[in-house]
Amino acid sequence: MATRRRRTLANETIKLNVADVRDAIAKAQRKQASLVVLQGSESDLGTHVLLDKPITLGRDPRVELPLQDDGISRRHCRVSFEGEHYFVEDLRSTNGTLVNGDPLKKKRALEPGDRIYLGGCVVKFAHSDALEVGYHAQMDTLVGTDDLTGLVAKRRFDAAYLRALDTARAVRRPLAVMMLDLDGLKAINDRHGHPVGAHIIAEVGKLIGGVVSPKGAACRFGGDEFAAFLPGMAKPEGKEVAETIRTWVARHRFEKDGVIVKPTLSIGVSAFPEDGRTADLLLRRADEALYRAKKNGRDRVHT
């Protein structure tokens, strides 16, 4: 009897190990599969998300894959993992969802390379092959990142800013907006050359990102000017974050090819809703505050 019991336990152990291996493979496949935006709004092109959880696609800024297209419903469709397959289902969208051109009438299993059509947007279900997913992730980084500073590209920032403002309106929470500009960069370029100036812009971008990224998003707005937004923060909190950035820049050691320079940063802060309710107006109010910071001596924060 004892011998038979030991054999039974051994067999159960083998079955358990096989189940563990299957679970591990399934988890690995989930981590490797992804969705990639192939067609749609310019700000969405190349967007890449891993399917490590159910992903809802739609126009609502709070879904996992928000898309900028008026023809898309706020919660349009969902992709999820069930058993050994990924499935897509329409969420009673206004214009419907198609897979490879065929209208989606019920939940459908996805195959590698399938294309999901919603509004004017096309999203590809990427193969679970790690090389393909890695390629799409790399392309997303190249398309969505400013190569000098490492901050999010402006077109991605613009889309994220609009979504953040939509969310702020929906949940009735504040949103702080900043415009940031380097002081005296032209004089530094004239004296030390543009490579030193580019180094300063890159370093300042990294400093801004280090402060803002955990709380919101920032981008290089153009040249040596930056923009940022901070969800859930009113003007006093936004000004405090801006002061932290200004201090970090003032204390940072900027050195390039043996040349040491000491640039400073001026910052203007506005906030939703007291300074405006539209994206353009909030940026304009922040830019006006930035102008006051420059006019009153530079290297300061103004509201």
Describe the protein.
This protein is of the alpha+beta class and 303 residues long. It has helices at 2-32, 130-144, 154-171, 185-192, 194-212, 235-251, 279-295; strands spanning 34-39, 48-50, 55-58, 65-66, 77-82, 85-90, 98-99, 102-103, 108-109, 115-118, 121-126, 175-183, 217-222, 225-231, 254-256, 259-261, 264-272, 301-302. The strands form 4 sheets. Strands 2-1-11-10-7-8 form a 6-stranded antiparallel β-sheet. A 5-stranded mixed β-sheet has the order 4-3-5-6-9, with no helix packed on it. It has a 5-stranded mixed β-sheet with strand order 13-14-12-17-18. β7 and β8 form a beta hairpin. The model is unreliable at 1-16 and 24-31 (pLDDT under 50).
Q: What general form does the structure show?
A: elongated
H and E string = HEEEEEEEEEEEHHEHHEEHEEEHE
**Spatial extent as radius of gyration:** 25 Å
Task: Specify the structural class.
Answer: alpha+beta
Question: What gap, in angstroms, lies between the N and C termini?
Answer: 83 Å
> What strand order characterises the main sheet?
2-1-11-10-7-8
Average of per-residue pLDDT values? 84
Which ranges are low-confidence, i.e. pLDDT below 50, for 5 or more consecutive residues? 1-16, 24-31
Number of helices: 7
Content of β-strand = 25-35%
The largest sheet, given as strand count, sense and whether it forms a barrel, is:
6 strands, antiparallel
- Helix content class: 40-55%
Number of strands: 18
